[in-house]
TrEMBL record:
Lineage: Bacteria, Bacillati, Bacillota, Bacilli, Bacillales
GO biological process: phospholipid biosynthetic process
CC per GO annotation: plasma membrane
Names of the cofactor(s): Mg(2+)
KW Nucleotide-binding (keyword) present: yes
Protein name stated in the entry: Diacylglycerol kinase
Annotated source species: Peribacillus cavernae
Amino acid sequence: MKRARLIYNPTSGREAIKKHLPEVLAKLEKAGYEASCHATTEEGDATNAARIAIERGYDVVIAAGGDGTIYEVVNGLADAERRPKLGIIPVGTTNDFARAIQVPRSVEAAADIIAAGHTMPIDIGKMNEKYFINIAGGGRLTELTYEVPSKLKTMIGQLAYYLKGIEMLPSIRATEVTIEYDGRIFEGEIMLFLVANTNSVGGFEKLAPDASLNDGMFTMLILKKTNLADFIRIATLAIRGEHVNDRNVIYAKANRIKVATKDKMQLNLDGEFGGLAPAEFVNHYRHFDVFVPAGKLPDDPANQ
Ligand SMILES: Nc1ncnc2c1ncn2[C@@H]1O[C@H](COP(=O)(O)OP(=O)(O)OP(=O)(O)O)[C@@H](O)[C@H]1O
């Protein structure tokens, strides 16, 4: 019998998962799995739980939480040679990855997608020793994702990020970097750089408009040093995906990217603190099979 392990963050989002657990487990059992779950207890626990699921040979591992929980689960699974299929139940404040794979923000609907059994291959990124599934980045602006207190997120959700962004905007400084991407080089001052696996980043769904989930390539975006007025203009363009041709933006595909800086630069992986530069990003082609709705995603080989 196939076995599924649900790893859920009981504090995620507005603590939405807890009351739906019996239905989720029942749906999995009905789909033919022997299902069990693990509630995470603290930061890092989802990674440990995922490693244990590998040791115990689970066929499916499901991450239920926000992007932070998915990130931790991915890091517990990604080094294994035989990796379980990955399911996502989005109950966080930011659910960028779920949005990118069109898994709805309803516990029951997300569980139905896993029960239906359709998967597609997805690339992931590795930065130095850590993996990310959605987005990596650096620059002062990306730091706001972990400056938002968790309690505030639980209370007011996505709004907490925007409030923090407005608060930080006037103080954002540029960083001098050297970025090497597939043999090309950029040297100069930047506001931020992003290395995206998907098109869905921080609620901006068109930030990397042509990112593919499984072409073996990252979409890289560099925002050069700008003044505040230009910055706001480009952010507004980014809502519609019209920033990619702006003269302050470098937008390119690459599967290996190296970032070096003389200043201290914090790196961000899937919204979590990922260490300090220098960094090397490597794309791992079709590393996971992820449950997605059938017939919806253009990158799904089943729809091509
Ligand atoms: N029992 C727990 N108590 C406190 N924190 C926890 C617990 N379990 C996991 N965490 C931590 O909570 C962090 C945020 O979780 P998660 O991403 O699932 O949801 P979120 O708070 O809605 O945030 P977001 O969706 O913005 O990432 C994770 O980085 C994880 O390490």
